[in-house]
Structure formats: structure tokens, C-alpha cells
Design a protein that fits this description.
Structural class: mainly alpha
Shape: elongated
Order of helices and strands: HHHHHHHHHHHHHH
Number of strands: 0
Strand content: under 5%
Radius of gyration: 43 Å
């Protein structure tokens, strides 16, 4: 028999259950009351391409415009000096929200250097200094000097200065020295069509028509879209009295460039000489629509006078006197003489 001092079995079981429940409640309370850890993930680093910004656009290479002769194959005039375009500034992405520190550099890819800023083209690139916005993109610790990208200077085009010197000699009327420069350039680059054109212009001024025609033909073969070379070829063919060939060359130039007023003028002269006044008038009207020219107005006046349209002829002669382009002393005197005759006829 159990002693009177020991509690009954049911009481012991009840006490044990109560203790288990109390222990579980206490453990649960401690678990809920523990401190919470910050589990907010850091924002991702921007992509390397975005941090590097937009690539720097290279400066446009310098160039010299083709220098065609006028209808009388005058020496070409130099084009405007080429100026390098400014490089575009790199764009900087907006900073990420300040929620947590950025991860260490090992977790993101930093650009090792700015994009190459050297210019592509005929003249050396300028020594460029990265902008303040771009400098912020560099990593905190700079890489060794051997790993830092430096702007590369492109070698200058040796033919560019030779070409410009030839143009200067042509402008000064020294065609023999211009020929020397263009021949030196063509020894370096035999396919330089602008040099072929300008060399032929100087040869034409020295009376070497056959050599000039050959060079113009070479230029048009190398570049079939070079309308000024076709114009100059037509001029030389006119001087050689090759009328049909000259017309074909000028028509080809106009087919390439509808605003080629020099070829339109020469076609007007060719049709005027052939007695085809209507076609001549069409080309002279095309000239003055693109570039008002005293000689074109004069020929329009001649055509109107020949057709018996005296008032129209007077109007064209007045326009010829108002234009400085193509005006010459002998042309002005002839226009004034014809105007006096027409005014006298109209008063009768």
C-alpha cells in the first residue's frame, strides 16, 4: 500500500501535465520575444554599361569639299576649314535609393577606364580631359598606369595638307606648282578623285586638253556619282569641239545632281548654238531657278527677242543688269545696247 505521505498517482500525472504546458508556453514566449534581424536585401549595382555612360561619339573626320571648275573651268575654290565636332558627354545613371550600403566592389563589375575618346578621321584628336561626371565613374582605387586607357592620337592624313596646298596654288593662279602637289598626292593615293579633278583643271588652264580629258574620265570612272567631274569633262569636250560628247557629259551631271547649274548653263549654250531655242530656253531657266546668273538672263533675252517678244526680252535684259553673278563689262555693254534698240522700236 502507498504511504499516506505520497500524493496519489492521478495527482502526480496532473502536476506533470501542468509543468509540460508551462514549459511550452515559456519557450513560445521566448521565441516570439527574440530580436528581429534586418533582412532587407541591398539594391543591385547598375550594369557596367550603364555606369560607364553612353559611348563617346568620335569627332567627324575632317574633309575638303570637291572643287569643281565653273563652266569656263576656273580654278576651284577651297571649302570651309573642317572643325571637329564636340564629343558627347557621358550620361550618368541616377543613384540607387539609400536603403542599405552598397555591396563590396567584388559583387559588381566596375569599369576599369572611360571609353576611348580618340577621334577617327583626318586630323589628330584633341587631348581630352574626362568631365567631372565621368570622373566619378572611376573606381576609388585607380588601377596601375599601364592598365589605364589613354587617348590615342591618330596619325594625320599626309595627303590632306598636300591637297590643300595644291588648292592654294590654284587660287593664286600658279597652276604648275598646283600640278606638282596633285601629282605628289596621286603618287600616294592614285584613286583620289578630287585630286584627279583638280589636276585636270590646272592642265586645262595650261592648254593640255587631252591630258585633262583623260584625268576627268578617270575620276568619273572611279566615282560615277561625281557630277562636277562630268561637268568639267563636258567643258573640255566643248573646247575640243566634240559637241555630242559634251552634251552627254553635261546631261549625265544633271542626272546625278539636278541642281548642277553649271552643266545646265553649258547645255543651254550648246542648244543655242545648234539653233534649238526652246531647249536652250529650258536649260537657261533651270540655271536662274537655281542660281540667278547675268549671262543666263542675257541669253533668255536673246531668245525672247528672236521670237519677237520684245517686252519679255527687255525684262530679261533688266534682270541681267541687276545680277552680279556672271556679269562682265562687255556683257553689260551689249545688254545696254540691246535695251536701247528695243526701247526705240517700242516707241515707234
Amino acid at each position: 500500500m502507498p504511504s499516506a505521505a505520497e500524493p496519489p498517482v492521478e495527482a502526480r500525472r496532473l502536476l506533470a501535465g501542468v509543468l509540460v504546458v508551462l514549459a511550452a508556453v515559456t519557450a513560445g514566449w521566448f521565441w516570439l520575444a527574440r530580436p528581429q534581424k534586418d533582412v532587407t536585401l541591398p539594391p543591385p549595382l547598375p550594369a557596367a554599361a550603364a555606369m560607364a555612360g553612353a559611348p563617346l561619339s568620335p569627332a567627324a573626320p575632317p574633309s575638303v569639299a570637291p572643287l569643281p571648275a565653273e563652266p569656263e573651268t576656273a580654278a576651284p575654290a577651297s571649302g570651309p576649314a573642317a572643325v571637329s565636332e564636340p564629343l558627347a558627354e557621358p550620361t550618368v545613371p541616377p543613384p540607387p535609393p539609400a536603403r542599405s550600403p552598397l555591396p563590396s566592389p567584388s559583387r559588381g563589375k566596375e569599369p576599369s577606364a572611360l571609353p576611348d575618346a580618340s577621334a577617327e578621321g583626318g586630323s589628330p584628336a584633341k587631348d581630352l580631359t574626362p568631365s567631372v561626371a565621368a570622373s566619378r565613374l572611376l573606381p576609388p582605387s585607380f588601377p596601375p598606369e599601364s592598365q589605364t586607357a589613354r587617348p590615342r592620337l591618330k596619325e594625320p592624313d599626309p595627303t590632306l595638307e598636300v591637297f590643300r596646298l595644291g588648292v592654294l596654288y590654284q587660287q593664286a593662279g600658279d597652276h604648275r606648282r598646283a600640278i606638282e602637289q596633285y601629282r605628289a598626292l596621286l603618287a600616294i593615293d592614285p584613286r583620289h578623285v578630287a585630286a584627279l579633278n583638280n589636276l585636270a583643271v590646272s592642265l586645262r588652264h595650261l592648254g593640255e586638253l587631252e591630258a585633262a580629258a583623260d584625268l576627268f574620265e578617270r575620276a568619273t570612272t572611279l566615282d560615277p556619282t561625281y557630277d562636277k567631274a562630268f561637268t568639267n569633262l563636258g567643258v573640255v569636250q566643248q573646247l575640243q569641239e566634240r559637241r555630242d560628247a559634251a552634251m552627254a557629259s553635261h546631261l549625265r551631271a544633271l542626272a546625278i545632281n539636278g541642281r548642277n547649274w553649271e552643266s545646265a548653263f553649258d547645255l543651254g549654250l550648246l542648244f543655242w548654238e545648234a539653233g534649238e531655242l526652246e531647249r536652250a530656253s529650258q536649260f537657261f531657266l533651270k540655271v536662274v531657278a537655281v542660281r540667278p546668273h547675268a549671262s543666263a538672263y542675257y541669253h533668255l533675252g536673246l531668245i525672247a527677242e528672236h521670237q519677237g517678244q520684245r517686252r519679255d526680252a527687255l525684262q530679261r535684259y533688266r534682270q541681267a543688269l541687276q545680277e552680279r553673278e556672271g556679269a562682265q563689262a562687255d556683257l553689260t555693254a551689249e545688254v545696254e545696247r540691246r535695251m536701247r534698240n528695243l526701247v526705240g522700236e517700242l516707241r515707234r
